[in-house]
Design a protein that fits this description.
Elements lengths: L2 E6 L1 H4 L5 E9 L5 E5 L9 E5 L5 E6 L4 E7 L16 H7 L6 H6 L8 E7 L2 E7 L4 E5 L3 E5 L10 H11 L8 H12 L22 E11 L2 E8 L8
Antiparallel strand pairs: 1-2, 1-10, 2-11, 3-4, 4-5, 5-6, 6-7, 7-8, 8-9, 11-12
């Protein structure tokens, strides 16, 4: 139940992907993770936030190639236990290595069995979301403007936090050198909601039947100069301050 806010700037996009994003990670606090760094010796230069258990990444980036990917979980139609499923953490790493070609065939043929996901990809070719529901892999281009995605589709009106907060992020576009502070201030405002509220971005999903809580957020800028990512751990799960 992670959340991403992304702005694609049409003017910057003419020279590259021109993306600015804010991503909030929800995970089980008992599942250990490593902060942003170069954790994969076989992938020199790739940085990311690593899941220690599976070795993959929630967010990964390759500044040298201008690629960034963020993984969000979504529901699926599979009757698949966790021990039968391939970890989704490999997806972000494959994406920034430009190795996601053929993913549709592997998933839809059953060669790879994986729980549902949204994979947000930013590259020199633009931005897109790959969505897997256990039966079909769909691709949604991310057009110019400000958008949000969580556990359903891009800008999905069925997602309460998108309905509540997308207009607010629209009103504060990610322009200027101080854009992260503007969006972080707005994120702090969202945290005034109860973290179990369906409209909350800083979340406690336990009342909804999931062990996950918001643990950290990251900001990233992707343009012709490369990728700049900053991560920030919350002081406690599901707590802003």
């Amino acid at each position: 139940m992670c959340t991403v806010v992304i702005e694609i700037d049409a003017l910057r996009q003419a020279q590259g992907p021109g993306a600015r994003l804010l991503a909030v990670r929800d995970e089980d606090p008992l599942r250990e993770w490593d902060t942003l760094g170069e954790w994969w010796p076989d992938r020199p230069g790739v940085i990311g936030i690593r899941d220690r258990r599976a070795g993959g990444a929630w967010l990964a980036a390759d500044p040298a190639t201008g690629r960034l990917a963020v993984l969000l979980n979504r529901a699926d139609v599979l009757d698949l236990s966790d021990d039968q499923a391939v970890s989704r953490g490999a997806l972000a790493l494959a994406s920034v290595a430009d190795a996601s070609a053929g993913l549709r065939e592997r998933l839809e043929s059953g060669a790879v069995r994986m729980h549902g996901f949204n994979l947000l990809e930013v590259s020199p070719a633009g931005a897109r979301v790959l969505s897997w529901d256990g039966a079909t892999l769909r691709e949604t281009p991310v057009p110019a403007g400000v958008h949000m995605i969580a556990h359903d589709d891009l800008d999905d009106p069925a997602t309460a936090r998108i309905v509540r907060w997308l207009p607010e992020f629209h009103a504060q576009p990610a322009t200027g050198d101080d854009w992260p502070e503007s969006w972080i201030r707005l994120l702090a405002e969202t945290a005034e909601l109860d973290p179990a509220d369906d409209r909350a971005i800083i979340r406690d999903n336990r009342p909804h039947g999931y062990p996950t809580q918001s643990l950290l957020y990251a900001t990233a800028a992707v343009d012709a100069d490369g990728v700049d990512v900053r991560d920030h751990a919350l002081p406690a799960p599901a707590h802003w301050a």
